[in-house]
């Protein structure tokens, strides 16, 4: 549901003026204050300029330079023309004001502005919280036609409410339904983010400074997830939201699962695994003995590769084509890596393929820095046990300008019962899941 996740219609083009990202100041809708001070924020310079993003859906605006540490060299390139998009932009639905008011039953505290994204079972609009005049995003979810949608909604609500982190989207409020019987829609009030990484990559070339800062923030948020033993499982550019500060937040936790899955849970891991295959780790398709946090690190590597030249690295058309593209670049697995694959069928498939030599990432990305290429290679290691971890990636020299071990917090560990509804031992009915969602919202 990446397209639903608070995507706006703003399309970014590079702004090469040396304007530091202004500090975005908002008043929280609820008692939970989503803003905190970090070491990175200390590098920012406040400006009284207007927002770098226009609220008009068809306008093009500017991506400001990322904040730099004191003494960091300015490597932002000179102005270029806007980059043509490799893909059509996500469709944006614009509804009449009266229609939006009827369809978003959120009460008088919120005035609807625009519909800014939609997906399989939800719509997102921008709105104003009238008491505070804060702009917010309202995510309307209608999950009750399918138990799988109910599961994803419950995961999303529980996980986002659990994490309190600058690089993870937060829930400011949830509209409480009048009763369980009248409970037909879920309304999440969230931070309004101007755009997402997918839109940025499709419309412009990113400087090395931007790549560093965005990957750093992605890994910083991912570290918080992994420290709580949570796998995101659906990291991709459209699930990385951006605002006018160049702040990045991970969103869409509908596929997230515990890293400590039992045998029954692991067996059903692929049943629901419908994430975009382009960012899917090879062990997911080849049925390794276990699925670990390394699957998210692989996705980060795919995102970094896409930032470096604006194109997906492994745009597979199907399962077989996806594996072919991966092996075309990584080469035939070594014997150690080959025998790490538990599925005999997968081994037979790879054994039947012609030998392939590894392609150097430096040749694939000749304009990227040596450090960027080194991190990319470590994230895209075939064997998950040999792949760099999130913590190791944060310490990589490529991110040295931003890395601060004192400002990369872990999250509190989740109670083992947190995923009790999702343990694979029994399939809950839609009505049971609906009641769990209702209780979660009302708690």
TrEMBL record:
Could you tell me which residues belong to the region Disordered? 30-98
TM regions (residue ranges) = none
Does the record carry Transferase as a key word?
Answer: yes
Q: How is its activity regulated?
A: Activated by threonine and tyrosine phosphorylation.
Q: Could you cite one Gene Ontology molecular function of this protein?
A: ATP binding
Positions with a binding annotation for ATP: 140
- Tell me which EC number(s) this protein carries: 2.7.11.24
Where are the compositionally biased (Low complexity) regions? 47-62, 70-81
Q: Where is the Protein kinase domain?
A: 110-399
What protein family does this chain belong to? Belongs to the protein kinase superfamily. Ser/Thr protein kinase family. MAP kinase subfamily.
Q: Cite the PANTHER family for this sequence.
A: MITOGEN-ACTIVATED PROTEIN KINASE
Name of protein = Mitogen-activated protein kinase
Which organism is the protein's source? Puccinia graminis f. sp. tritici
């Amino acid at each position: 549901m990446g397209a639903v996740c608070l995507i706006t219609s703003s399309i970014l083009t590079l702004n090469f003026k040396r304007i530091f990202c202004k500090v975005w100041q908002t008043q929280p809708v609820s008692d939970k204050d989503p803003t905190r001070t970090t070491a990175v924020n200390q590098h920012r310079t406040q400006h009284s300029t207007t927002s770098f993003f226009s609220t008009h859906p068809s306008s093009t605006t500017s991506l400001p330079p990322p904040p730099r540490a004191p003494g960091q060299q300015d490597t932002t390139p000179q102005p270029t023309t806007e980059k043509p998009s490799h893909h059509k932009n996500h469709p944006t639905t614009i509804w009449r004001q009266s229609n939006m008011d009827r369809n978003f039953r959120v009460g008088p505290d919120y005035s609807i502005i625009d519909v800014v994204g939609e997906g399989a079972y939800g719509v997102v609009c921008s709105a104003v919280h009238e008491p505070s005049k804060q702009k917010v995003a309202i995510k309307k979810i209608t999950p009750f036609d399918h138990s799988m949608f109910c599961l994803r909604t419950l995961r999303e609500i529980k996980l986002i409410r659990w994490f309190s982190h600058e690089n993870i989207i937060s829930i400011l409020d949830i509209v409480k339904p009048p009763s369980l019987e009248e409970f037909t829609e879920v309304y999440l009030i969230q931070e309004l983010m101007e755009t997402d990484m997918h839109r940025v990559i499709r419309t412009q070339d990113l400087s090395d400074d931007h790549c560093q800062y965005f990957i750093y923030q992605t890994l910083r948020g991912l570290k918080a997830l992994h420290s709580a033993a949570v796998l995101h499982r659906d990291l991709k550019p459209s699930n990385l939201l951006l605002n006018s500060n160049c702040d990045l937040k991970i969103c869409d936790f509908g596929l997230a699962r515990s890293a400590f899955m039992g045998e029954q849970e692991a067996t059903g891991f692929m049943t629901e695994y419908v994430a975009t295959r382009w960012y899917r780790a090879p062990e997911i398709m080849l049925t390794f003995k276990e699925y670990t946090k390394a699957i998210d690190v692989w996705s980060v590597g795919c995102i970094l590769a896409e930032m470096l030249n604006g194109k997906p690295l492994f745009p597979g058309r199907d399962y077989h084509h996806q594996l072919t593209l991966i092996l075309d670049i990584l080469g035939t697995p070594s014997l150690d890596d080959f025998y790490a694959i538990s599925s005999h069928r997968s081994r037979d498939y790879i054994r039947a393929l012609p030998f392939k030599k590894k392609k150097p990432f430096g040749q694939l990305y000749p304009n990227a820095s040596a450090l960027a290429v080194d991190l990319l290679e470590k994230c895209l290691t075939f064997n998950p046990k040999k792949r760099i971890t999130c913590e190791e990636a944060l310490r990589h020299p490529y991110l040295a300008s931003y890395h601060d071990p004192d400002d990369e917090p872990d999250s509190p560990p989740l109670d083992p019962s947190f995923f009790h509804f999702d343990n694979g031992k029994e399939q809950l009915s839609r009505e049971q899941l609906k009641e769990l969602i209702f209780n979660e919202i009302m708690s």
